[in-house]
Fold each of these.
Amino acid sequence: MNEEAKNMVSASELAEFCVKAAEDRKAEDIVALHVSEVTFIADYFIICTVSSTVQGAAVQSHIERSVREVLKVRPISVEGDAMSGWVLIDFGTVVVHIMSAEQRAKYQIEKLWGDAPTIEDQQTLGNLRPGKA
């Protein structure tokens, strides 16, 4: 098996891992939407709320670093910044939205994608947690 094939991770595993990484930095109101049936943009949207720009930057950094170090996946792009109240991390199959409470209330992404089912933490990653390689 080549090195690239060993590093393949499913969209659901990546989504669950991002949820756990956001939880590690105390993000709140984390919602994981399985959007593959309603859009071709991604398979999952992860949406979470942070209470400050410092926390937003910490959540962003932790998700990016943990996914890179443990799952060997890098984001395709990162848009916005903690100061704006909305950071979007695009991993291709998974898009993470880190939002201030104000931005989340204003844009109501969950309602935009309301036809998408939410996913529950299925514990499929076992002991594979951010920071534990």
Note: The beta strands are 28-34, 44-50, 77-81, 86-90, 94-100.
Amino acid sequence: MSSQETPDISQSIVMRCVRDSGAGPMLPVVLGFRTSDPYAVSASFGTMMGEIVWTFGRDLLSEGLGGSVGIGDVRVWPGVDLTGRGTLMLEFRSPDGELVVETPRAEVANFVARTLQLVPSGAESDHLDVDAIINELLAV
């Protein structure tokens, strides 16, 4: 999802960077979902250098609430913080580096539930505009 496209559902959330030495700085993140791209969600990280957007499968967030999922660029797994509160860990990898963040599990579960109300699991293909996808591919 490009930063120019407005998501149908968005949720601001704060994620904490996790480093080998322990907890790092807090990052403002906006999770986004568009019905026109129903298999994906985005995480837009606000940084001092501008916005960094990762787009990945909605199923990773959904399944990651219950167990470790993902291989490659994005991995998700549940955790618990020092106060006993449920968290969700997200790991993003690129050739430029790696980022691991921790966020409240309940906030991500709320976001996922809202996306599933809009587009239930299994109904994603009903929301795809195949002609628009083909036109976009041909325009490149």
Note: The longest helix spans residues 105-118.
Amino acid sequence: MGLERLFSICVVGIVPAWLLLIFAPNWKWTQKINGGYIPSILLAIVYTFLILIFWRDSAGDFSSLAGVSRTFQTPGILLAGWVHYLAFDLIIGTWELQDSQKRAIPHAFLIPCLVLTFLLGPMGFLTYILLRTVWIFAVRPAKADL
């Protein structure tokens, strides 16, 4: 299988997990699939194989920006980096959902955070942390006083 095909499979294959987080957060299969980290585990397997196969072809290192740039010039390592993002962003999105449910944050407030986490990882995580902080310290105590 070519790297382009594997890229497409990973990108398209992860979309249903995100759709479950956004549109079916309380469905038992969302909890079983994403809560069990099944999609991220599958991506971790792909990542591991890519690293094992292509690492020796990489001429870079992680000691400088130039070294990192050389590392990701190897297409198999570039794909591994992208799969790494896909897996970890989904883990963060799953945590955001679980944490928001524990804190009774309305799901409508979470959806923008999930979309940002899917598209821009750390920005979505930061957005959720801000939402969570406002909810814990400003919104929730005000509701408790009523």
Note: The first helix runs from residue 3 to 23.
Amino acid sequence: MLEQLKEEEIVNKVGGRFKLSTLIQKRMVQLNNGAHPLVDLRTTDRMAVVLEEILQDKIYLDTSGNMHTISSDYTSGLTGV
């Protein structure tokens, strides 16, 4: 898991180390408050879940630094408008 953080792929996917840190922190708060994982992993390691969600493009930061999940965007009507 920590090896994924050292790879530039995940850093570049999010747009930099600061954005990666922000995205991880925001998603960890959601998971700790009872949000359901968006990926099917057989683990209780929330950090592993968050990293996999990022790698599978399930979560992202918008240009204002707000975190979005793919499922919440579709249910709220934000489909790329």
Note: The chain has one domain: 2-76.
